[in-house]
Write a structure and sequence with these properties.
Blueprint (H helix, E strand, L loop, with lengths): L1 H28 L3 H24 L7 H28 L4 H24 L4
Length: 123
């Protein structure tokens, strides 16, 4: 349970970082919302990998094999979330930021389980 709480704390930190990138790129610079979302997702997930490795899962090091597994899990999640974002914004006319928050909430438990089982496999 404590591990899940740590994962959520890291997730909230990374969510705020990702949203800052998304809003900054889209609203301040004028980058397409999908490109800005991908950039924010990648930025937040790199930070998440480093923070979760040390703080949540207490990995001794951030080994290359674990990093590849982390990237693969997040690549799949990024693809699914980006398609959902485009569909909900373009077809259902939802506000991009509300959709990004909804996807983050849905993504959190899926990501936790996937990262625990695939990236930070317990010995």
């Amino acid at each position: 349970m404590l591990q899940l709480a740590r994962f959520c704390a890291v997730g909230m930190t990374c969510l705020l970082l990702g949203l800052a990138v998304l809003i900054g790129l889209h609203d301040l610079v004028g980058v397409n919302y999908l490109v800005a979302y991908v950039a924010g997702f990648i930025f937040a997930n790199v930070a998440g990998y480093l923070l979760n490795a040390r703080f949540t899962f207490f990995a001794r090091s951030t080994d290359p094999t674990g990093a590849v597994r982390y990237l693969l899990v997040n690549a799949v999640l990024l693809c699914v979330c980006t398609v959902a974002l485009k569909l909900l914004v373009d077809e259902f006319r939802m506000w991009y930021l509300a959709v990004a928050l909804l996807l983050a909430a849905l993504n959190a438990p899926v990501s936790f389980l996937a990262q625990r089982l695939i990236t930070y496999r317990l010995q």
